[in-house]
Amino acid sequence: MNYKKRDDSKVRAKKHLGQHFLKDLNIAQRIVDGLSGHGDYDRVLEIGPGMGVLTQFLLQKTTFSTYVIEIDTESVAYLQKHYEELSPRIIEGDFLKFNPEEFFPKPFAIIGNFPYNISSQIFFRALQIRDRIPEIVCMLQKEVAQRIASPPGNKDYGILSVLLQAFYDIDYLVSVPPGAFDPPPKVQSGVIRLRRNAVAALDCDEKLFFRVVKTAFNQRRKTLRNALKPVGEFPDHPLLTKRAEQLSVSEFVTLTQLAETLATQM
Hints:
Strand content: 15-25%
CATH architecture of the largest domain: 3-Layer(aba) Sandwich
Domain Ribosomal RNA adenine methylase transferase N-terminal: 27-198
Mean pLDDT: 91
Keywords: Cytoplasm, Methyltransferase, RNA-binding, rRNA processing, S-adenosyl-L-methionine, Transferase
Number of strands: 9
Number of domains: 2
Order of helices and strands: EHEHEHEEHEHHEEEHHH
CATH class of the largest domain: Alpha Beta
Strand order of the largest sheet: 4-3-2-5-6-9-7
Enzyme class: transferase
Radius of gyration: 20 Å
Protein name: Ribosomal RNA small subunit methyltransferase A
Binding site for S-adenosyl-L-methionine: 20, 22, 48, 70, 94, 113
Shape: elongated
Largest sheet: 7 strands, mixed
CATH superfamily of the largest domain: Vaccinia Virus protein VP39
Helix content: 25-40%
């Protein structure tokens, strides 16, 4: 099978956009193969395609149509020239400001080599529209990928772990060395897959849940009784003797319910 090779002279990696172009075709194939079809979608949106290293493998798939969103005008021009069949489905813009209803009337999957400097923001945006996104496969900084996929009780477990695991089942797929990129980043990378779980809504106030989780991890070395003082004075509860990294999603829901009780008593 003939794959299109990137012409490095065409697009210059821009530091302010966090661009590191993947050049390892085997890794690119593995990332695309990570899409499982969970949620029965028929469209996939690639975030930050650059020069189309992932895109060329996506376009070979017949079970879905590939769309891309790219903020870099130079990359957009490159894609229009080298992937003419994709041109009608190239969205020039910022995913963080993107309105999916303009292009995706039904659920769609997300894939991409996420810019490391905005990967957390991408996930927070995806959470806002999570019922439209049944599956995400992405590459990001290995430390962040491990944190997102980490179970409770692990030192890597953090805010993103809880917020994303509340609504997605997460698998760590593969590690990627710096040499797979041009230019090589100074960190290792990792690929994860997120698949929407059956939780339609949390059994608590969602905004308060986000606040409880973030406040708990802001002082993760303290017990939750002390870490959550900014939220309020909680009644005695066994969970308050633990630290944030020890709690599961359901236990954070329980804490949020306690916080709701506090609010009604004030």
